[in-house]
Design a protein that fits this description.
Blueprint: E1 2-5, E2 19-21, E3 26-28, H1 36-44, E4 49-52, H2 68-90, H3 97-116, E5 129-130, H4 134-152, H5 157-168, H6 179-182, H7 190-197, H8 199-208, H9 215-223, H10 244-259, H11 270-279, H12 287-296, E6 305-308, E7 313-318, E8 328-334, E9 337-346, E10 355-358, H13 359-366
Parallel strand pairs: 2-5
Antiparallel strand pairs: 1-4, 2-3, 6-7, 6-10, 7-8, 8-9
Helix pairs in contact: 2-3, 2-4, 3-4, 3-5, 4-5, 4-10, 4-12, 5-9, 8-9, 9-10, 10-11
Amino acid sequence: MRLVAIRSVTAGAKLAKSIYNDNGQILLYEGVELTERSLTRLYELGISFIYIYDERTHGIEIETGVSLETKRKAIRTIKSEFKGIANHLKLKKSFNIDHFNKDFAKIVRAILTDIKNNENALTLLSDMFVYDSYIFTHSLNVSIYTLGLAVDLGFSDKKLMEIGMGSLLHDIGKMTIPVDILNKPGKLTDEEFKVIQSHSMAGFEILRKAPNISLLSAHCALQHHERLDGTGYPRGLKSNDIHLYAKMITIADVFDAVTSNRVYRKPMLPHEALELLYSGVGKQFDQDLVKAFRRTVAVYPVGLTVTLSDERVGIVVKQNKQLSTHPVVRIIKENGIELTEPYDIDLMERYNITIVETEATLAAATST
């Protein structure tokens, strides 16, 4: 299977990985022949990249790092609990925070189990899900990326639970924001942006009242929009005044935001998102954390078509977790000629050869 930008797919291509809604029901089955109508509909639903059949990639296995079942259960819980909190807040009623804590702790433990049992770099680009709210999937993705980073850094189990809860619930305060502002597709007014900014403090207030949620987890909600140079909010904290957990969540938060399809912006690929993070090192993001984060995510996802520095074209077939910028690539074109017998090269063993371009990037940039 090959990973391609949906706007570059032509009618007649066959879907290589089923697409689900957030209830786990299949919307489009693997093997179906794609039509112009179905491709347009998928794009409108927020699917930017899909897997299509390609004989040259036979035998490729897609490993995301967290199981499909874990993600399904997590999304159901996040969706149910967040909506429940929103309704109680709207009616100015109290809610069962103890029950709320237990449900989310189960999600964190399940994610941690999957990450610790996984030998590959994390990639969520291959998730073929259609969600009814960005907040639900974003909360899950940020927790997966943050926990992947925390496991890489060797945090204790107690700290992993703290940061897991904090990252999973970092945006809980958005349940206090009016829906018309939260889901506004166009540019926010200055007043609307101030309302959006209030979610950090609102989330902190919700979480700090929970008897079984660490105060450090609550501070993740409060500080995840702070920046090293003091340009963040709500308090304009600088460098050492920002808790380590919040610094980690900030990186995962930005990475997932820019790699997700939004109404007002096309998504970046992982390597582009990492370039964005590196451009903010020292000003917005901690350098050592960004370096560690690069180790945990798949810079070039399996199935992606890439051009190498020696002008050969290939498809990523396997990750090297030790150095995700140098995966195993199956060469399909050499000297401008399509090969009848593709072959694999491991870029970990060929440091003089690098990836310089991706087909999906080009397709996304030229599509309208």
